[in-house]
């Protein structure tokens, strides 16, 4: 049994208001080619298929084309689950009718987590799609009292443990944040205040765990519990990550081995730094000058239309930081710190500065609840 | 060959900001029951499945449930096309994978209008789904120079005429405005300035034509060229319409006969008129007082919180018109006239009142183009 594990496609995403749809198409074609080349028995996408619950029409079309290519042209089944960015109902439309075509979409969480048996060229395996679900949803669907993400996941995985796989290896597909995982700026927190993590131990009993959510490829706790990472760099904090899909092989005993197959972006996402005149000079001979760039200008003087000048050489400059100008004060560090902070921390700092005292425990709890409700409402809209 | 012809479900629609999703579910259950009772070979939905290109999640879920019931539980194939309200790409997602399940969705227009063969208990038939498409789209897809809806439809139907149905009856499913058709207030015009109509003659060669767009059931030109009408009254202008689905039977020779099967709304949409005190008095014994109501008050005096008083008896009053109060001036007629006018007419009147002169032919053309572009952009969004 061989399959590709990928996740966090985020179709329809923009980077600093630039549409990435062409870049997404470019790299998804590589995934199709890799699936064919390695003669895999399935392609698994572990959530965040789309970037938001209502994706733009061209993202829907792109997914439609990729699905068609994999399933209709190459007869490779596809398993995908909803992540925290996806609209579960929308993604799951007609999934009961799609199964027989080989397209297995797990949209909204249901009480009976279905076993998806995939026939391999050598051995078979059973896949369990566990869509992203917050504790409130798990309580609702399973009539239990799970309060944390950890407890909720335990309830879900208990279903998988109880399921009779008839001796076949069990692969869990899930979208969550495993404690200790390394995040990037482009992931939306699942919860406020750190209660969003689940421990890797929960996933230990399975033959392989195909995870989505974190954008850097990594394993947590055990080598068979893996994040494939996103298909593209979705923030400048990912500039040094190497994106890939994970080729997973389950042997006759159900033991998983993995290999990272690199993905090559049409345009890289990177940060360049220097004096304007130097950057313009070296840019002319930079064969990758159409990469998506953040530029840190070290010049200490005012520059008229720095963006315009830079784009005359680097067409896809997305953001200019006047590092040199701001280095003279503490402002830069302050701003960048703030941007990296969560809504919670931003509000807490604001509260402290205005009131001269910290949030009380009750206020802290109320604020966390409010922010969670807002995120929840956004997800449902 | 027996099939149900329905259209204009407009799932997710609101009436004066009231969600109709429960009412839609109520009446769709009747369609499922009728399909089973009459042992039909297919259910055909001729466009405007959703009310807008981005439907709310509960509308997606409702459609998912209805589809599941028809296809999975009762094994009745479903054919649906995109209307002018639908988002063609969204509706058409994974349609190539869905075909084998018996769900045939025709989303965006493609150059090869596919023949959908449905096996009947006695005879078979071939269905051609022609989604709503404006002349610009038809020009684009077919590389032709169709300028009007009439010319565009002729191009599309020529494809159907050329298609080899191997001697089986041909049924065309289309969403358009046939010249002379009777409209309601709840249909969105397909075009500005009257160029949106097509002649019934174009459809004469086919065995049956299942149309969508007009919300009142009717036939145009020939009895086999029919609008099924919407499943609910979507405006007060439809208060006297009887909603139904059309049961179509094609005999051995391919000759169509039709029967209207009535649909019963959970709550009617109607207008009541009278003095407030009279209405409140009769309302108490009105067993249908939870209907969706427009109330025309004949009182000639000011009334404090008329809506609140009315809703204490009639919970679903949606709109109150102070007919009595306004009858003393011409204002009412003016207002209601205005509401019934298209954006074009409204702007033209505004222009004339402000400038004291009419639009020139050039200005008229520019205005029509602009309004069409706005509608077009809305449809694509």
TrEMBL record, chains A, B:
Q: Which domain of life is it from?
A: Bacteria
Q: Which UniProt keywords apply?
A: DNA recombination, DNA replication, Endonuclease, Exonuclease, Hydrolase, Nuclease
Matching entries from InterPro entries are given as: Calcineurin-like_PHP (IPR004843), DNA_Repair-Maintenance_Comp (IPR050535), Metallo-depent_PP-like (IPR029052), Mre11_N (IPR041796), SbcD (IPR004593), SbcD_C (IPR026843)
Write out the GO biological process terms. Answer: DNA recombination; DNA replication
Q: Report domain Nuclease SbcCD subunit D C-terminal positions.
A: 267-354
SUPFAM superfamilies referenced in this protein's UniProt entry, alphabetically: Metallo-dependent phosphatases
Q: Which PANTHER family match?
A: COMPONENT OF ATP-DEPENDENT DSDNA EXONUCLEASE, NUCLEASE SBCCD SUBUNIT D
The record's similarity note reads: Belongs to the SbcD family.
Give the protein name, as stated in the record.
Nuclease SbcCD subunit D
Species of the source: Echinimonas agarilytica
State the taxonomy lineage: Bacteria, Pseudomonadati, Pseudomonadota, Gammaproteobacteria, Alteromonadales
């Amino acid at each position: 049994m061989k399959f590709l594990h990928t996740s966090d496609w985020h179709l329809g995403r923009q980077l600093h208001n630039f549409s990435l749809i062409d870049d997404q198409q470019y790299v998804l074609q590589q995934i199709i080619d890799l699936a064919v080349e390695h003669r895999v028995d399935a392609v698994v996408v572990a959530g965040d298929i789309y970037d938001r619950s209502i994706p733009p029409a061209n993202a829907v079309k792109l997914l439609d084309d990729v699905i068609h290519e994999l399933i209709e042209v190459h007869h490779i089944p596809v398993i995908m689950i909803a992540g925290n960015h996806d609209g579960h109902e929308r993604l799951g439309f007609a999934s009961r009718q799609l199964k027989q075509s080989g397209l297995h979409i797990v949209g909204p969480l249901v009480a009976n987590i279905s076993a998806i048996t995939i026939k391999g060229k050598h051995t078979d395996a059973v896949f369990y799609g566990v869509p992203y679900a917050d504790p409130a949803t798990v309580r609702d669907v399973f009539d239990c009292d799970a309060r944390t993400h950890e407890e909720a996941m335990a309830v879900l995985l208990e279903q998988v443990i109880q399921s009779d796989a008839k001796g076949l290896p069990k692969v869990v597909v899930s979208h969550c944040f495993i404690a200790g995982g390394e995040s990037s700026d482009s992931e939306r927190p699942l919860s406020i205040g750190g209660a969003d993590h689940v421990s890797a131990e929960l996933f230990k009993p399975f033959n392989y765990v195909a995870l989505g959510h974190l954008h850097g490829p990594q394993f947590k706790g055990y080598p068979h519990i893996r994040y494939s990472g996103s298909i593209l760099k979705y923030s400048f904090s990912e500039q040094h990550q190497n994106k890939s899909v994970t080729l997973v092989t389950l042997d006759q005993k159900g033991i998983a081995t993995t290999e990272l197959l690199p993905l090559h972006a049409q345009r890289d996402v990177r940060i360049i730094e220097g004096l304007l005149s130097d950057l313009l000079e070296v840019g002319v001979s930079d064969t990758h000058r159409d990469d998506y760039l953040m530029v840190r200008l070290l010049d200490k003087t005012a520059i008229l239309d720095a963006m315009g000048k830079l784009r005359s050489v680097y067409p896809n400059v997305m953001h200019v930081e006047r590092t040199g100008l701001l280095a003279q004060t503490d402002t830069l560090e302050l701003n960048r710190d703030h941007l990296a902070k969560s809504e919670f921390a931003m509000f807490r700092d604001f509260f402290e500065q205005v009131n001269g005292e910290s949030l009380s425990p009750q206020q802290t709890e109320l604020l966390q609840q409010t922010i969670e409700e807002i995120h929840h409402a956004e997800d449902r809209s």
